[in-house]
Amino acid sequence: MTERTGQNPDPADPEFLHHTVAQQRTFLELHSNAISRMSSIQEDLNSRINGISRILQEVTEQNSNPTFTTSQLSSGNITTSAMTPEDFRLQPEPFRGDVEACGGFLLQCQLLFQRAPSKALQWAQAFLASNPITPSFDHFIEEFRLVFDQPRKQEEATRKLLALRQRNRSLSEHVIDFRILAVQAGWSDPALRGVFYQTLNESIKDHLCTQPEANSFEDLVAAALRSDIRLRERNHDRISKTRPEPSRRTSDEPIQIGHSKLSAEERLRRRNEGACFYCGELGHQVIQCSLRSNYRAPPLGDRPRGEISTMINDFLFVPVKLCHLSKVLDLQALIDSGVEQSLIDHSIVNSLSLPTERLTSPVKAAGLGGQHLSLITHRTKPILLVTSGNHRETIQFFITRTPQTPVVLGFTWLKLHNPQLDWSRHSITSWSDFCMGNCLQSALPSVSTPNVYESETIDLSNIPECYHDLKLVFSKSKAASLPPHRPYDCAINLLDGAPLPKGRLFNLSGPEKAAMEQYIQDALSLGHIRPSSSPAGAGFFFVEKKDKSLRPCIDYRELNQITIKDKYSLPLISSVFDSIQEARIFSKLDLRNAYHLVRMKEGDEWKTAFNTPVGHYEYLVMPFVCSTLCVMHQAWQMPPPMTCRPGRPPTSPISKTATAFIR
């Protein structure tokens, strides 16, 4: 047998085998214990995941159905048996990513963290996907503020604090707003004192100057509140002392003409005794009072300028003309929707000698408070009223005493005509469709009759005596009036389907604008034009004459291009000269207003419409620059075989002898 030497153990040694087996058993036990612990940890994790899943499911069900069951309330350790809607409002409102609501939401979350839908939920899902499932609350707050809170809240509060002013608010409200911003700005006490003083009203600053200087911000706020209270009390006392006491009169003093009205006691006494409210005497009423009838109010220009005159400037007055027989009176009429009927002062009735009629039943005029003002017993018969230059109507006025506003157009007038009013410019901008068809006609009142023309003083000094029996032909007022419709009224026939002219506005200089306004006003007053709603339009401008005056021109070129031309024959110049070769006596009869002596055919007026910076108008008479008007005027004034100068308004009768000429 060979003996071995060395350090290697003998594998066949029983002791070595026993030791090795013991070691392996120890390792197996350690692995078994590790596996057991890992299994336990895994089960715990699975249990926690299941619990989280159940919680998420419950939260999802709560969001979809806000009604909690009784079991859910008991599991949440809520002992109350009933939950009212007011209890739910104590919980945080859902946060939807509003930056301004971030601070308030976090404050509620610290009390009860429940839910966060919309953008906040999306952020939470993204955050939890990349972070541990159970972060600390401080970590959550930090991340939440990073996403949703204002990055520069302090700077924004500082800016608002510097811009804050008290203005018309009470000081207590101002202090609340200031304190909120002061907390957010985080300023020191001296800085808050300086800024708060600057935000106060000047009256409070002045009052604080009389008090000791405040040592802190709170002292300054208290002093400012005391000053505000004292100033309010002082203003209240001042207003109470300056209120006018009601006027008192002795019971036997009659009313003072032109002075304040009677006191309530005096009016009651006179009503009970049946005395006159005007003079205080017995035996008659105010409407029969002779003193009141003989009294005439002074002209408006001579009256003292007091509160009433100032108030009148704030009302809407429009220029009107009252026309009766041959009399025309220019007035300013008050438009008042608070007056039921249209009124006129009795002095206007007397000055125009307007016919009147008694009302079937007298009308009692009352003020806004129901107090009796007057008793209206008469009204005018229908008279002609011209408003704003060319609006004509017949109207009846109730007669009363309104010397400061002699004509009042009331609610019935507004309801009938329904005008558009420009209250800032104190003018009427447009009229209703009813007025377009019934009232907007000739602006010259039709009060002129042949007797009126005959009463007109006509200068015949340069007129041959043989024409004196035809003096009405030389009347300027008759030539300027709106002519009647005749069989040969001017018609404008347009091509079928042709586009209507639109025209354009021309730039006018200062003198041209003044001349344009004067021309429009004159033409409206003569009735030659009227406001238009025509779809057509032509430009309006001026050309300078040789004498440097301005001639109005209307650009009718587009209208002439679509007009069917009238082929009425005009005499040849050569034939006219041949007819006057043997003539020895000539007389030129110049037609006043020329083309304006012929009316536009009814229904064709809209085709002559033109645009100006002050309005849209159309002609009622023939204008001067339309292509067919020359031959129309020629056909009207000189039908064959009479002799004329072609294409010109004046006519020239001729004769060989004076006797034949006069005939």
TrEMBL record:
**InterPro entries attached to this UniProt entry:** DNA/RNA_pol_sf, Peptidase_aspartic_dom_sf, Retrotrans_gag_dom, Rev_trsase/Diguanyl_cyclase, RT_dom, RTL1-rel, Znf_CCHC, Znf_CCHC_sf
Q: What is its EC number?
A: 3.1.26.4
Domain CCHC-type: start-end pairs: 276-289
In alphabetical order, the GO MF annotations are: nucleic acid binding; RNA-DNA hybrid ribonuclease activity; zinc ion binding
Ordered alphabetically, the record's keywords are:
Metal-binding, Zinc, Zinc-finger
Ranges of Basic and acidic residues composition bias in the record: 235-252
Q: What class of enzyme is it?
A: hydrolase
Q: Give one Pfam family, short name only.
A: RVT_1
Family of this protein: Belongs to the beta type-B retroviral polymerase family. HERV class-II K(HML-2) pol subfamily.
Which PANTHER family does the entry link to? LDOC1 RELATED, RETROTRANSPOSON GAG-LIKE PROTEIN 5
Q: What is this protein called?
A: ribonuclease H
